[in-house]
Amino acid sequence: MEYIFLKRFFKNRLALIGSIFLILFILIALFAPILSTYNRDSIDLSNIESQPNINHILGTDELGRDIFTRLLYGGRVSLGVAISATALQLIIGVTLGCISGYYGKWVDNIIMRIVDTVMCFPFFVIAISIAALIGPSVWNVILLIGLLQWTGVARIIRAEILSLKQSEFIEAARAIGLSNSEIIIKHLLPNTLSPVIVNATLSVAQGILMEAGLSFLGLGVRQPQPSWGNILSAAQSMRVLQYEWWLWIPAGLLVFLSVLSINFVGDGLRDALDPKMKI
């Protein structure tokens, strides 16, 4: 089974390219202190908004900080926020989806009405309102994304559980006296991993975009801690857009490439895990 999965995945060239880029982004974020010779927050007021040169390969910002260094450290924050928020989504969505699909009846009705209610609200409208009240920070962004975006995985898990719980192997598990929690954890959850894995990869990409959007608006990660989103906030100035491309194009390109890479990987995983696909 593992051989078939890997063979299918490696046949997808876009998924391979996405994996290479994604691994590269993770590595440069992890080894940021080694790859850069500058301190993340070191200010040089004599070298403000300088163009890319030998000393600063991507130039400096409005405080003379090295853009390349801040992009490396910003990758830690942007990727970390996206992965942490996705983990929170999975914990909430998988738990509620399992309970809803397995127990059904009034339990299912209550949970699904909660899901429908949460899905009715536009993410950015609610997120901006809450962020304005509780203040911008890394942890608040993770909580906002995780608590507002778990509904999709909950619906996926519920649908999978509903189709599996009447299967013969589940009836056999009940017959030998396994408890409901044992049936869910040992038998149902392992059989729902494929759609969950695919959904998780796409949620990471979505999390990067959401963090970038909130930080761009000043309601996400606070300065001086860098993220790709708050580095992009420099593009709010027309002067920067026209004459100082190094302040926003590299950050925008990293967001674009990371999201595209994750989507390629997600598509590759979906095809590789699909039993109907040919080897």
TrEMBL record:
Any Pfam family matching the protein: BPD_transp_1
Entry similarity comment: Belongs to the binding-protein-dependent transport system permease family.
Organism: Clostridium chromiireducens
One CC-aspect GO term: plasma membrane
Membrane topology field: Multi-pass membrane protein
Keyword Repeat: no
Keywords: Cell membrane, Membrane, Transmembrane, Transmembrane helix, Transport
Record field: transmembrane: 14-35, 79-103, 245-266
Main location: membrane
InterPro entries: BP-dependent_transpt_permease, MetI-like, MetI-like_sf, Oligopeptide_permease_AppC, OppC_N
Lineage, highest ranks first: Bacteria, Bacillati, Bacillota, Clostridia, Eubacteriales
Domain of life: Bacteria
Domain ABC transmembrane type-1, chain residue ranges per copy: 75-266
Subcellular locations according to the entry: Cell membrane
Protein name: Glutathione transport system permease protein GsiD
GO BP annotations listed: transmembrane transport
